[in-house]
Specification:
Layout lengths: L1 E8 L12 H7 E3 L2 H7 L5 H11 L3 E3 L3 E3 L8 H16 L5 E6 L11 H12 L5 E5 L7 H5 L3 E4 L8 H16 L5 E7 L16 H12 L4 E7 L13 E7 L2 H17 L11 H9 L6 E5 L14 H8 L5 E7 L1 H10 L4 E6 L15 E11 L2 E3 L9 E3 L3 E6 L2 E6 L9 H4 L10 E4 L6 H4 L7 E3 L37
Parallel strand pairs: 1-3, 1-4, 1-5, 5-6, 6-7, 11-19, 11-20, 12-18, 12-19
Antiparallel strand pairs: 2-4, 8-10, 9-10, 13-14, 14-17, 15-16, 17-18
Helix pairs in contact: 3-7, 4-5, 8-9
The structure holds zinc ion.
The site of zinc ion has 4 residues, from loops.
Length: about 500
């Protein structure tokens, strides 16, 4: 047997000013051919599960590409064409028994708002009967084109995404049984007009905890092979953005439809709980100041790198300095220029920097505003480590040349590449022990829980400035389907939801 195995992942924030070219994929991870196996075998990724299942089945694998970039703006056409071409050429030039793909589901490319749908449609045109199994991130925006051109789909059930390997193994085994003729997958999908907010999708919290438990319960019913609820990615101004469900049943489309309806009805009934409630920044920081039992996690969620944030918005840091919080470790401010200055000055040097604020954010009408700060260069590093926490376990990651800058009561990790802090390595790789800090200010939303939840005492969301804002009033949506909640007041979900 011969399997085509590939990965192409990007969560595209159409409001983000950060360009997404091929270099951005190379900065995080772009591997080709045999290098794919070396980079991902043994890691917590769907792709690693696909490789293990192929080995178990005694199948040869062809791995044309495995590419992922940190979330950012619309993927440039050249990058999208390069990555899809790698997969399509491999498919066209070989004979395969199956394809196993590790995709995200929220990729928007220039001229192609449904990046994954576009890829799968063209794969199906080349190989009309090829069994194709795909895993998608819980933040994927699903579509007709995605489902119509795929044999079986599974999504992650945990956010933070600590079950990526498990999701791959589940759908991969399902495909192996399909190849043996034991089962015949029938898929059903649908969506509700709900632009759920990722800050309200953590699976330790309601309502997503119940939604994912409903999926697990459904999978124990006879004939149901996989059930997934996708919260979707709301920072994408595209027609298909929003919450959806996909159910795979053995032979029975009716069974799949019934579970899909149950999941979508439950999500719609709790639509208000999928929307974040704001608190003024100054008030939240003042509340943090009264807390004593650290480490207290403060979340600069409007500049969440893992949703396309610029990682250099200084609004929350400025407020912490203004209110005089002490013993705060910050991860991280993106500012390659400041890192260069600190590298030139050396460890122990006192420097004055115009830190951060290098990126304008036209989508929210905000100019980049650096903060002039005087402080000390405490440490320098190459920013590389291997993840030992539960998400992306075993992966080598890098923040590029990195410096630790101490100013006022803050120790700020300053990086040369964008990176969401979900692993303790962001601090420990530069000599900061996060357990010994009173406050940790993280440019993250939910993924921080992967590494930090065991030591975080009281997570507090701080409403700063950035392109991952949860304030819809700041964003102008032009392309998403209307009406959609909460942009429009809606009481009933229109049917049918599976066109
Ligand atoms: Zn995600």
């Amino acid at each position: 047997m011969r399997f085509l195995v590939a990965m192409m992942k990007h969560e595209t924030n159409t409001f983000s000013p950060i360009p997404t070219d091929l270099k951005r994929f190379r900065d995080w991870g772009l591997h080709e051919d045999e290098a794919v196996v070396r980079a991902y075998r043994g890691t917590n990724h769907p792709l690693a599960a696909f490789l293990d299942l192929a080995a178990e089945a005694g199948a040869d694998v062809v791995t044309p590409v495995a590419a992922e970039a940190m979330p950012s703006g619309i993927v440039q056409r050249g990058a999208y064409d390069y990555l899809t071409r790698r997969i399509l050429d491999a498919l066209a030039n070989g004979a395969y028994d199956a394809a196993l793909l590790d995709l995200h589901g929220a990729m928007v490319a220039e001229g192609e708002p449904d990046g994954e749908g576009g890829l799968l449609e063209r794969m199906r045109a080349i190989a009309p009967t090829l069994p194709i199994a795909v895993t998608f991130d819980m933040h994927g925006n699903m579509s007709d084109r995605i489902v119509a051109n795929t044999t079986a789909i599974n999504g992650y059930k945990s956010y933070p995404h600590t079950d990526m390997y498990a999701a791959g193994e589940q759908i991969g085994r399902l495909l192996m049984r399909t190849l043996k003729g034991e089962i015949d997958p029938a898929m059903s999908w649908g969506n509700v007009p709900l632009l759920a907010q990722t800050l309200r999708m953590g699976t330790a919290d309601e309502p997503m905890r119940t939604m994912q438990q409903m999926c697990r319960d459904a999978e124990r019913e006879p004939g149901i092979l996989a059930a997934s609820v996708f919260g979707g990615f709301p920072m994408a101004d595209i027609e298909i953005a929003g919450l959806s469900a996909i159910v795979v049943a053995d032979r029975s489309r009716e069974k799949a439809d019934a579970v899909r309806d149950r999941l979508l009805d439950a999500a719609w009934a709790r639509k208000d709980d999928f929307i974040y409630q704001h608190e003024p920044l100054g008030q939240a920081v003042a509340r943090a100041k009264t807390m004593t039992d650290g480490p207290i996690v403060l979340l600069d969620h409007a500049d969440n790198v893992g949703s396309g944030g610029t990682s250099d918005s200084m609004a929350v840091i400025a407020e912490l300095l203004r209110q005089g919080l002490d013993d705060v470790a910050v991860a991280a401010v993106w500012d390659p220029e400041a890192v260069k200055t600190m590298m030139a000055a050396g460890v122990g040097a006192d420097v004055t920097l115009d830190l951060g604020g290098k990126t304008d954010m036209p989508s929210i009408g905000a100019k980049g505003q650096p903060l002039r700060l005087t402080g000390r260069v405490r440490r320098l590093s190459d920013g590389q480590w291997i993840v030992r926490g539960p998400m992306y376990t075993g992966s080598r990651v890098t923040t590029g040349p990195t410096a630790l800058f101490e100013t006022g009561g803050l120790s700020i990790v300053v990086t040369s590449l964008h990176h969401e802090p979900w692993d303790l390595g962001i601090f420990t790789s530069i000599g900061v022990d996060p357990a010994h800090c009173r406050y940790l200010l993280l440019k993250s939303r939910i993924h921080y829980r992967a590494g930090f939840a065991p030591l975080a005492k009281a997570p507090l969301t701080l409403d700063g400035v950035g392109v991952t804002t949860s304030d819809n009033d700041l964003l102008s949506f032009r392309n998403v389907r209307r009406p959609i909640f909460p942009l429009d007041p809606m009481q009933r979900a229109p049917r049918p939801r599976n066109p």
